[in-house]
Amino acid sequence: MPKQIFDIKTECDFEKRVLNSKNAVMVGFFSPWCESCKIKIPKLERVIEENEEDVAMAKVNIDELQDLEHKNNISNVPSIAVNKNGQVQSTLDGMQEIDDIRKFVDDNNDK
């Protein structure tokens, strides 16, 4: 797994790697039981890998970190949230094609 794609295991880890990041971080909220998540999150990973020098991605399992789901106002999965300056700036909920995910990442990347 490239260093730009990482799993969040604790709230402290989320704070350190996402909220305190100087750059935008795409956060993929998912659950292992969610069939749509098994499709969308790998699509996001592919987009991030294409842009690996520019974009970071954090993966959050909402079954393990329910408080992060609530604190980030995530109401369903799969969901992608863009965090900048410690705040959620934009979200992309539900299923999308890879081109739509690519556009979302490009539109919300610091570059």
Q: What are the salient characteristics of this protein?
A:
111 residues; alpha/beta; five-stranded mixed beta sheet; 4 helices; 5 strands; 26% strand; globular; protein-disulfide reductase activity; Thioredoxin_CS
Written overview of the protein:
- There is one protein chain.
- A hairpin with a 2-residue loop joins β4 and β5 (87-93).
- The chain starts with a strand and ends with a helix.
- It is built from 4 helices and 5 strands, in the order βαβαβαββα.
- It has helices at residues 11-19, 37-50, 66-71, 98-108; strands at 5-8, 25-30, 56-61, 79-84, 87-93.
- The chain is an alpha/beta fold and 111 residues long.
- α2 packs across α4 (98-108).
- The longest helix is centred in the middle third of the chain and has 14 residues, at 37-50.
- Disulfide bonds join 34-37.
How are the SSEs ordered, and which strands pair?
Elements: E1 5-8, H1 11-19, E2 25-30, H2 37-50, E3 56-61, H3 66-71, E4 79-84, E5 87-93, H4 98-108
Parallel strand pairs: 1-3, 2-3
Antiparallel strand pairs: 2-4, 4-5
Helix pairs in contact: 2-4
GO molecular function: protein-disulfide reductase activity
Disulfide bonds: 34-37
Domain Thioredoxin: 1-110
Radius of gyration of CA atoms, rounded to a whole number = 12 Å
Lateral arrangement of strands in the main beta sheet: 1-3-2-4-5
Oligomer: single chain
Mean pLDDT: 90
Tell me roughly what share of residues is in helical segments: 25-40%
Total beta strands: 5
Keywords: Disulfide bond, Redox-active center
Pfam families: Thioredoxin (PF00085)
Domain Thioredoxin: 1-110
Family: Belongs to the thioredoxin family.
